[in-house]
């Protein structure tokens, strides 16, 4: 379980394919505090530490399902990934409840500077049936983008032309200078692919309403 309050970024130092799996080695400031089997969020994806080879690096493994559902399969050596260790049960919940189970990806459709801060617009497609189960964004609700807990601004949804089973959703988030500097939002441009996790409480409420 995570809070969406990113601790910083980790740099990808190695990518090794083994069958359908991808072994990702990274370097970050808190590597010395990690242990084998510990959970760490990477761009919002919960992955398990499987090796600590030294030199401030650690290794995690992403399976095919994770690579298909997230942007981890697009990583290159040198990329920065948002990282967060699992939430402490005795601490404040400064973000929102984040499972580390990425639902899907979205594409950045615009970045607008707003007198020192930034507005990012994202677009995603979702099956209507999943939207009925809470896989959507609501105004002032919570959403996790690349592991960052954010507040939704101006959400909209439209039918996908030619496919009545799909909806196209858009929303904006506001990024303050601190978040911009200390996460990989500084590298997100129009056309960039990001990971989304919709609010788990919204999913439960949508499921309950359907009973």
Structure explained in plain terms:
The chain has helices at residues 64-69, 128-132, 177-182, 200-210; strands at 8-18, 21-27, 39-42, 45-54, 57-62, 80-85, 104-114, 117-127, 142-145, 148-151, 153-160, 163-175, 193-198. By secondary structure, it is mostly beta strands. A hairpin with a 2-residue loop joins strand 7 and strand 8. The radius of gyration is 17 Å and the shape is globular.
List keywords for this structure.
mainly beta; 7-stranded antiparallel sheet; 211 residues
Strand order of the largest sheet: 10-9-13-7-8-12-11
Helix content: 10-25%
Estimated radius of gyration:
17 Å
- Oligomeric composition of the shown chains: single chain
Number of DSSP-assigned strands: 13
* Uncertain ranges: none
Number of helices: 4
What is the chain-wise order of helices and strands?
A: EEEEEHEEEHEEEEHEH
Distance between the ends: 27 Å
Q: If you average the pLDDT, what whole number results?
A: 96
Net shape: globular
Main pleated-sheet profile? 7 strands, antiparallel
Structural class: mainly beta
Strand content: over 45%
């Amino acid at each position: 379980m995570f809070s969406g309050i990113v601790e910083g970024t980790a740099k990808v130092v190695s990518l090794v394919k083994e069958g359908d799996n991808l072994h990702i080695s990274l370097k970050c400031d808190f590597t010395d505090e990690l242990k084998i089997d510990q959970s760490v969020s990477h761009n919002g994806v919960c992955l398990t530490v499987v090796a600590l080879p030294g030199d401030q690096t650690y290794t995690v493994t992403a399976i095919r399902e994770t690579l298909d559902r997230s942007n981890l399969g697009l990583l290159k050596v040198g990329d920065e990934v948002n990282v967060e260790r699992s939430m402490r049960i005795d601490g404040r919940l400064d973000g929102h409840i984040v499972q580390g189970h990425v639902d899907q990806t979205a594409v950045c459709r615009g970045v607008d500077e707003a007198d020192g801060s930034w507005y990012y617009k994202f677009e995603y497609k979702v099956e209507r049936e999943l939207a009925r189960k809470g896989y959507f964004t609501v105004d002032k609700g919570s959403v996790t983008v690349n592991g960052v807990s954010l507040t939704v601004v101006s959400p909209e949804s439209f039918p996908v032309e030619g496919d009545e089973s799909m909806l196209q959703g858009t929303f904006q988030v506001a990024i303050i200078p601190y978040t911009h500097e200390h996460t990989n939002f500084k590298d997100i441009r129009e056309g960039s692919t990001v990971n989304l996790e919709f609010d788990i409480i919204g999913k439960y409420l949508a499921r309950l309403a359907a009973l």
